[in-house]
């Protein structure tokens, strides 16, 4: 299953970012520390190319600390990029973002040249909560679901520091299949755009390989690493009482339990990807996408030839190539 979710307001957000970026000094991109690669928007990277970037690994209190360190090293090695871990509810670390922006754009500041910062991120990554922490009051609407912010807002953090908030935005086509599942598990994708059972199975398949012990503790199971994802979902459903008449497991209910527990950090602090894993997934996704495009181009060319919109290309023999 390929998970895709790009509601109409996201098209408007993309256009708004393209216009706003011309006058922006620093771009802050909030990433989900549990899936830093999957939550980095490739469309945003293309639109903001050349601008100093601050990558903020938000929800770091829910993520695996060792893996967060790997991702910080990964992003801090990129030119023109700084990376910081953050829990959006923590006041002091949030203020560090202002200092980091001034480091990235040292020539901006003061009333003559106020700092203009664009803050972006996927839906439900915690932007509004962070803005409210920076501002010290409820400046932005928050909610534990994707797509709460619908319009761009300008928020004055200080007399010479303007923050432009944008709605959470994904990208039109997710080519990394694993990213689609991870985004769905995190709550970044609208719940009507994916199948909970399939997402839970993908999530459990990864967790049983990398976080078997926390799963065993949470659900009072043994031998988790040796189970298939289907067996594990079935066992969790049985342990948590997700039963239908006749003792049959309600897999939908079991899947909802697993996804909820992951989002709430009830299983433990965990991260669904490392920089190396994501690089491999991305390379595979790009290769598959290129192959799909070649097939699509061939079909389109054949259609144009059949309807005589373009001439049929000469065969090698017709071109007079000697053997």
Give a written overview of the molecule.
The chain has eleven helices and six strands. About 3% of the residues have low confidence. The termini are far apart. A six-stranded mixed sheet has the order 3-2-1-4-6-5, sandwiched between helices.
Task: Write a compact overview of the structure shown.
This protein is of the alpha/beta class and 323 residues long.
Class by alpha and beta content: alpha/beta
Largest sheet: 6 strands, mixed
What is the 3D shape? Answer: globular
How large is the count of helical segments? 11
Average residue pLDDT: 86
Query: Which blocks of ≥5 consecutive residues have pLDDT under 50?
Result: 142-150
Helix content: 40-55%
Q: Calculate Rg over CA atoms.
A: 23 Å
> How would you spell out the order of helices and strands?
HEHEHEHEHEEHHHHHH
Strand order of the largest sheet: 3-2-1-4-6-5
Total count of strands: 6
Task: Furnish the topology, listing elements before pairings.
Blueprint: H1 8-20, E1 26-32, H2 42-47, E2 53-58, H3 65-76, E3 81-85, H4 91-104, E4 115-121, H5 127-135, E5 153-158, E6 161-165, H6 177-186, H7 196-210, H8 212-219, H9 229-239, H10 251-263, H11 275-306
Parallel strand pairs: 1-2, 1-4, 2-3, 4-6
Antiparallel strand pairs: 5-6
Helix pairs in contact: 6-7, 7-9, 7-10, 9-10
Q: Which labels suit this protein?
A:
323 residues; alpha/beta; six-stranded mixed sheet; 6 strands; 11% strand
């Amino acid at each position: 299953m390929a998970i895709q979710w790009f509601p109409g307001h996201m098209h408007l957000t993309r256009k708004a970012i393209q216009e706003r970026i011309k006058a922006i000094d620093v771009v802050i991109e909030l990433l989900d520390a549990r899936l830093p690669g999957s939550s980095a928007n490739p469309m945003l990277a293309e639109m903001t190319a050349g601008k100093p970037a601050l990558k903020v690994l938000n929800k770091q209190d829910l993520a695996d600390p060792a893996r967060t360190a790997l991702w910080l090293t990964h992003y801090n090695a990129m030119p023109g990029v700084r990376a910081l871990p953050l829990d959006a509810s923590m006041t002091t670390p949030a203020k560090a973002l202002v200092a980091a922006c001034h480091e990235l754009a040292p020539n901006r500041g003061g009333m003559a040249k106020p700092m203009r910062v664009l803050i972006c991120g996927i839906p439900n990554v915690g932007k509004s909560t962070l803005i409210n922490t920076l501002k010290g009051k409820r400046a932005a609407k928050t909610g534990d679901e994707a797509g709460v912010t619908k319009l761009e807002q300008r928020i004055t953090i200080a007399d010479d520091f303007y923050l432009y908030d944008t709605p959470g935005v994904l990208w039109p086509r997710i080519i990394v299949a694993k990213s689609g599942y991870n985004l769905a598990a995190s709550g970044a994708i609208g719940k009507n755009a994916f199948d909970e059972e399939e997402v839970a199975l993908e999530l459990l398949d990864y967790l049983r390989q990398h976080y078997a012990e926390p799963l065993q503790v949470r659900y009072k199971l043994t031998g988790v690493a040796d189970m298939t994802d289907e067996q594990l979902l079935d066992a969790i459903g049985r342990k948590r009482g997700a039963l239908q008449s006749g003792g049959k497991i309600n897999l939908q209910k079991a899947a909802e339990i697993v996804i909820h527990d992951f989002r709430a950090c009830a299983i433990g602090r965990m991260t669904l990807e490392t920089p190396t894993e994501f690089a491999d997934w991305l390379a595979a996704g790009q290769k598959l996408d290129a192959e799909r495009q070649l097939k699509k181009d061939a079909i389109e060319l054949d259609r144009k030839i059949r309807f005589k919109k373009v001439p049929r290309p000469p065969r090698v023999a017709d071109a007079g190539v000697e053997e």
